Backbone:
């Protein structure tokens, strides 16, 4: 499964490795180009994708109008998915859960040992993640929480820390919105292992030569790649 997402001019590419009898297999760009020529409707999903989703806050009708203009200009087809607002109560619950986990060290993040059975729904949530004890008023430290850089790797808060490293409600809401789409795609039984799904944000700026840009990226990817992120480097 391939998932391509974007924020502004930033593109984020997630790819679940494709396997055949010889191991990893990456379809060549010529494969996709041939498909695009034989099936013009594939142009509506950038030739490589089965579906395109656009994450968008329901109340930002202005952004959806701009995205509709972009869609019409490039002849694309996509489905809007409601993103989570920072005022959603779940954002606060997630922040509380993260704080309790870090404060108590009850358990650390680990990848599951086994994939669930084929017919079982895949959930991105650890059991009991949001089932946390009540937090006493004033028990939280005054310093902001810091974003993790790796599994179980969290730096201490420092006044000189860049703002992009702070775990804000807006970042939690954005994370949850993307995670919900990944969950949706992972459980979509109509998709095959080698299908592509593109996920965009509603502030995307996509150029008319997007097919050329994708071609250059595609031919540079290693055969066993899982995730490629196109964006600004954060130090």
Residues:
């Amino acid at each position: 499964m391939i998932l391509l997402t974007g924020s502004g001019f930033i593109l984020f590419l997630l790819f679940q490795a494709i396997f055949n009898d010889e191991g990893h297999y990456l379809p060549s760009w010529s494969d996709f180009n041939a498909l695009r020529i034989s099936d013009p409707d594939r142009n509506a999903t950038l030739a490589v994708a089965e579906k395109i989703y656009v994450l968008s806050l329901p109340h930002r009708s202005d952004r959806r109008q701009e995205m509709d203009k972009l869609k019409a200009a490039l002849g694309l087809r996509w489905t809007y998915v409601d993103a989570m607002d920072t005022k959603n109560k779940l954002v606060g619950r997630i922040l509380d859960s993260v704080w309790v986990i870090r404060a108590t060290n009850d358990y650390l993040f680990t990848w599951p040992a086994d994939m669930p059975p084929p017919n079982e729904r895949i959930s991105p949530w650890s059991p009991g993640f949001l089932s946390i004890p009540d937090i006493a008023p004033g028990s939280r430290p005054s310093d902001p929480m810091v974003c993790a850089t790796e599994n179980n790797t969290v730096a201490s808060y420092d006044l000189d820390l860049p703002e992009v490293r702070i775990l804000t409600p807006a970042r939690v809401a954005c994370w949850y919105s993307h995670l919900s789409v990944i969950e949706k795609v992972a459980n979509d039984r109509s998709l095959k292992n080698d299908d592509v799904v593109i996920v965009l944000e509603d502030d995307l700026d996509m150029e008319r030569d997007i097919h050329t840009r994708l071609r250059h990226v595609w031919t540079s990817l290693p055969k066993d790649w899982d995730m490629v992120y196109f964006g600004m480097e954060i130090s």
Remarks:
- Strands lie at 2-7, 10-15, 19-20, 23-24, 51-56, 79-82, 196-201, 227-230.
